[in-house]
Design a protein that fits this description.
Number of strands: 14
Largest sheet: 5 strands, antiparallel
Strand content: 15-25%
Order of helices and strands: EEEEEHHHHHEEHEEEEEEEHH
Structural class: alpha+beta
Number of helices: 8
Distance between the termini: 58 Å
Radius of gyration: 19 Å
Strand order of the largest sheet: 4-5-10-6-7
């Protein structure tokens, strides 16, 4: 896409370079930004030149730099991550739920996918399921934190204030050694997901189920143990913001989300029963 209104480009080298002039926007991979007209944008400020580390193992868990590409995250999760971090198995199926080719994965960033806040954001499903938080730089030189689940407030709308930039996404250690799973469905074979349900069961038996794509913002459902079929069905079906668009009706999204969640629930229950035998 030719962005004909853009007349300037700046490579950010320090935090001071993130002070935006009128009409400027920050850009990481730019895969969405360059895909359609941006009539109100007159300049780009490149975040990838800040030199942020892609992935760091810390005492608290895993830090993913906001400019880390999806491809880099997948390669690291599958080849370099600690073997005990079984939750990272969710990264590949989450990325596969994104309507994008491997070429996009090599440019699109984890932070950009989160900040774009699309209902079917692949990294939103992945990070929300692992209780990740965003480290946010504020324009006054400070910082704040927000759960990724709370950063998305509506389809294509996030909770960032003007001038705020996501610096990193932090996954806590307690969520990295769990059982995980993902179920998805789309009306079109090559269309984006109409409903995605992800889940995590921790070593202590507690469970988290997350609905994305079918709802306007992530719905996180927590249980002290793997729930019964009825309890999970009621929790999923009661989410208030299933929506209708050309990719599916609200009623269809609600119905299939219940089915997808039950598939995960049944699998986890079976695995736990077999492990206890």
């Amino acid at each position: 896409m030719d962005i004909t209104t853009v007349t300037s480009f700046r490579a950010a080298r320090s935090r001071a370079d993130l002070a935006l002039r009128p009409g400027e926007v920050v850009m990481a991979g730019g895969t969405w930004l360059m895909s359609e007209p941006q009539p109100d944008t007159t300049g780009f400020v490149d975040l990838t030149t800040l030199g942020w580390t892609d992935l760091e193992v810390t005492d608290d868990g895993l830090r993913i730099g906001a400019t880390c590409t999806i491809a880099r995250l997948l390669a690291w999760a599958e080849r370099e991550a600690p073997a005990a971090w079984t939750s990272l198995e969710l990264a590949r199926p989450a990325a596969d739920a994104l309507l994008a080719s491997f070429k996009i994965w090599n440019t699109a960033t984890v932070g950009g996918n989160v900040c774009q806040a699309f209902a079917a954001g692949a990294m939103i499903a992945f990070l929300t399921t692992l209780d990740a938080t965003a480290l946010i730089w504020t324009p006054d030189g400070g910082e704040r934190r927000a759960a990724v689940a709370d950063l998305v407030v509506d389809n294509a709308a996030n909770a960032l204030a003007p001038g705020e930039v996501v610096r990193a996404l932090d996954v806590p250690a307690r969520a990295l050694s769990s059982r995980v799973g993902l179920q998805k469905i789309a009306l079109a074979e090559l269309g984006r997901s109409g409903a995605v349900v992800t889940a995590r069961v921790d070593p202590d038996g507690s469970a988290v189920f997350v609905v994305t794509a079918a709802v306007r913002r992530p719905r996180v459902l927590r249980f002290s143990r793997v729930p019964g079929a009825g309890a999970l069905r009621d929790a999923v079906a009661s989410a208030p913001d299933f929506y209708t668009d050309p990719l599916g009706s609200a009623d269809w999204r609600r119905g299939v989300s219940v089915v997808l969640a039950e598939r995960l629930r049944a699998r986890f229950a079976r695995e736990l029963q077999e492990g206890a035998a």
